[in-house]
Write a structure and sequence with these properties.
Two copies of one chain form a homodimer.
Chain A: H1 4-16, H2 23-33, E1 39-40, H3 41-50, H4 57-69, E2 73-77, E3 83-87, E4 96-100, E5 106-109, H5 112-125, E6 128-139, H6 141-146
Parallel strand pairs in A: 4-6
Antiparallel strand pairs in A: 1-3, 2-3, 4-5
Helix pairs in contact in A: 2-4, 3-4
Chain B binds a DNA duplex (30 and 30 nucleotides) through helix 2 and helix 4.
DNA sequence: CACCATAATGAGACTGAGACTCATTCTCAC
DNA sequence: GTGAGAATGAGTCTCAGTCTCATTATGGTG
């Protein structure tokens, strides 16, 4: 769950970027902040509508783009078809996800060994790696336990 | 470039699975076999049309699904929006890709260290990893050299 | 407070990938 | 050759995400 610290960080960052305050964007930020797992744009739209605060799809996408652009939210691509968005804690460590093939849950993890292995690749391949994504498919700890 | 050996392997596998031979599917297989980098379904459609052998989109998707299902083709997800398909050599080693942020080229690579790091994750996280995807973004060796 | 430039919003049309449908056509074992 | 089942094609449909543009909100300035 993203902390209220995250919300503050978001507002500070957006203000520092010289952006206006806007109620629709605030709504999107609020929904994201109260959420543990990554949400899709459609889920955010539904939640806002359910909360009696319907918000145009374009507005939601604009807010998400902006947040991603400022490093406040991470766009997580889980397979095809739909991007998911996840609050990025200020000093948050870089992490990746496992998609549970049984329950569909998205589980975050980080691993120094994995990061090191990827860092080492640059030299070996003669390429410059700007960023990387790792996505695992498998059974999460919960499903694993009940199997 | 996928070898003619790949084509043979594909036909053997599909025949062993009790599937009929079909000209449309053969066309898709042929386009894939002549290609080094991963193709999107749309690209395959265009090539077939350009070659005077137009083929219905649904047929192309069906053929690709089938090939992926039988482990003959790999579905590579490069960002959002569009899957790409790549022939998978019979004894082909597991590999990943780097998307060049400059030229857009998709470069394949493999790395035992990376695979090991991912294997080690299962125990540490208490999950069972069935499969994994790694995607790097950066400058490929060609663009790196000319930079 | 009033004004204005600019930023943001909302509604809906649009796009593009991919899935679905169903009538027609092809394959292949007999 | 024939018939059952597989495959095809043309088109429709869905769904995520983008674009447009008229309207509205924001915040600095006089």
């Amino acid at each position: 769950m993203a902390s209220s610290r995250w919300i503050e960080h978001v507002y500070e960052t957006l203000a520092a970027a010289g952006l206006n305050r806007s109620s629709a964007r605030d709504r999107v930020i609020e929904v994201l902040s109260g959420q543990d797992c990554a949400l899709s744009a459609a889920e955010i739209e539904h939640r806002l509508r359910a909360a009696g605060r319907p918000t145009a799809r374009a507005t939601i996408y604009r807010a998400l783009d902006l947040l991603v652009e400022h490093g406040l939210v991470e766009r997580v691509i889980v397979g095809e078809g739909q991007a998911r968005f996840e609050p990025l804690e200020p000093g948050g460590h870089h992490h990746h996800h496992l998609v549970c093939v049984q329950c569909g849950r998205l589980v975050a993890f980080d691993d120094p060994g994995l990061e090191r292995a990827i860092d080492d690749l640059s030299d070996r391949l003669g390429v410059t790696v700007d960023s990387h994504e790792v996505l695992l498919h498998g059974a999460c700890d919960r499903c694993e336990a009940t199997a």
